[in-house]
Amino acid sequence: MPFSENRPLPHLRLARPDDRGALYRICLETGDSGADATGLYRDPLLLGHVYAGPYLAHQPDLAFVVEDEQGVGGYVIGALDTDAFARTLEREWWPPLREQYPMPSGDSANWTPDERIQALIHRPPRTPEDITARFPSHLHIDLLPRMQGGGNGRRLMMALWAALREQGSPGVHLGVGARNTRAVGFYHHLGFHTLREDPYSLTLGLPLQS
């Protein structure tokens, strides 16, 4: 049930190591362009391994959650320096996952959803230098339906922006699926502007320093 003004405002706090299961679950339940992706993946941990776990493990000071009586229902996670974060993951995060999940073989057009995510473990996408030069930080934000519509997304974003500004970041970027029109509208409303666009995704950026 979406958030109602009559309900208590969910608590916003820094994420803890024991929130890992909740972050992985939310990542999966919003993993189909904002919709529930549980039925798409045989391994329910794969999306979390790529899009949530690295941040909780290696940038915990930029991981925030909102929780209510049902538990954690949304998060924002980020990296201060995208390039440095990628180097850290190459050393410390991806190697054991690459042993656990082999690189898929055969024609990539025939890969299953699981295999497409496994390929990202072996070949993580790199953000172009012209984007990281101006917007070196990046983020991911996901909220379950019950947390949507009550300002929780904005609250999470503002918490992360404040932390990034305090650490001197000049700008932050994010990627979003082109089909996720609700999220695109939300980001534009918050002041993000489009940096790159293709038929499947957009990269958006937001300056953080005046």
Automatic annotation (TrEMBL):
Domain N-acetyltransferase: 80-209
Lineage: Bacteria, Thermotogati, Deinococcota, Deinococci, Deinococcales
Record protein name field: Putative GCN5-related N-acetyltransferase
Record keywords: Transferase
Keyword Transcription regulation belongs to the record: no
Highest taxon in the source lineage: Bacteria
Organism of provenance: Deinococcus aerius
Entry's Gene Ontology molecular function annotations: acyltransferase activity, transferring groups other than amino-acyl groups
Signal peptide: none
UniProt key word rRNA processing: no
